[in-house]
Design goal:
It is built from 5 helices and 7 strands; from the N terminus they run H-E-E-H-H-E-E-E-H-H-E-E. The strands form 2 sheets. The chain has a 5-stranded antiparallel β-sheet, with helices on both faces. Strands 6-7 form a two-stranded antiparallel sheet. The protein is α+β, with helices and mostly antiparallel strands and 188 residues long.
């Protein structure tokens, strides 16, 4: 097989142009994106991507392994997700909790395979999100829903007084071992 060097130079220049363009996108995008090798080492990380794990400077993450940032349990979960994505193809999302700047942060990573023209996985891409506020709101909602099943927290006489203040009627029922139940009717 003979390779014409004159054809390689333009291809190499085009590849370098694409790398520069991709690096420019990663430098300027306002989203937490990352690319890493199949073995896990980061190739490119946006500033927002570095902020999610608390690294700050994306240049510090290049060549690092994301699982080195994780606890043993997080690293195991992330490694399984990565292996599954490479084997099956569809994106996969996992969440983990980490201490960053003295606070507990919940991050959500979504990873996906990047394939060459033959369909072989050649890199892993992904994005991360700080979902701490969402996680806290979800827990608060869950706690509120659980407490609703525990009654009103008001005694029957207080409930009766409030309903009667609105010119309504309160019907009480009491069953041994089942607690008290009540239904109220108020005029419109």
């Amino acid at each position: 097989m003979v390779i014409d060097i004159d054809e390689l130079v333009p291809a190499k220049d085009k590849l370098e142009e694409i790398r520069t363009l991709l690096a420019s996108i990663f430098d300027n995008v306002l989203a937490p994106l990352f690319l890493h090798e199949l073995d896990g080492a980061f190739i490119l990380v946006t500033a927002f991507g570095a902020a999610v794990p608390g690294m700050g400077d994306p240049a510090r993450m290049i060549g690092q392994y994301p699982h080195a940032l994780d606890t043993a349990a997080e690293a195991e979960t992330a490694a399984k997700a990565q292996a599954t994505v490479l084997k099956t193809g569809p994106p996969m999302t996992h969440e983990y909790t980490r201490q960053v700047d003295g606070r507990s942060m919940v991050a959500r990573n979504t990873i996906f395979p990047i394939r060459d023209v033959t369909g072989a996985s050649i890199r892993i891409g992904g994005f991360a999100s700080d979902v701490t506020d969402l996680y806290n709101a979800r827990n608060q909602s869950r706690q509120a829903q659980e407490s609703l099943g525990q009654g009103t927290g008001l005694g029957p006489s207080a409930c009766k007084s409030m309903v009667e203040a609105h010119r309504g009627k309160l019907d009480l029922s009491d069953s041994p071992g089942g607690g008290r139940g009540f239904a109220s009717r108020c005029p419109r």
